[in-house]
Specification:
By secondary structure, this protein is an alpha+beta fold. It has a single domain, classed as 2-Layer Sandwich (Alpha-Beta Plaits), CATH 3.30.70.20. The protein is built from 2 helices and 4 strands; from the N terminus they run E-H-E-E-H-E.
């Protein structure tokens, strides 16, 4: 299995305008209004790392 993004919720500010989610061209990272947090769709995530670079809180990693 390939690498996938994961979120450290202790570092994440979980805002609906998440920079990491905006950087994800395939929308694998998204803000879930019901959970009030940023989530990763592991089926869509390709592990490209755009979200890692875009996260100002260093809350996203690809492993």
């Amino acid at each position: 299995m390939g690498k996938k993004a994961s979120i450290d919720f202790k570092k994440c500010d979980n805002k609906p305008y998440c920079g990491a989610a905006r950087a994800c061209k395939i929308k694998a990272l998204y803000y879930d209004r019901e959970l009030e947090s940023v989530q990763v769709d592991s089926f869509k995530c390709t592990g490209c790392g755009n979200c890692v670079v875009a996260c100002p809180h260093a809350a996203v990693t690809v492993q």
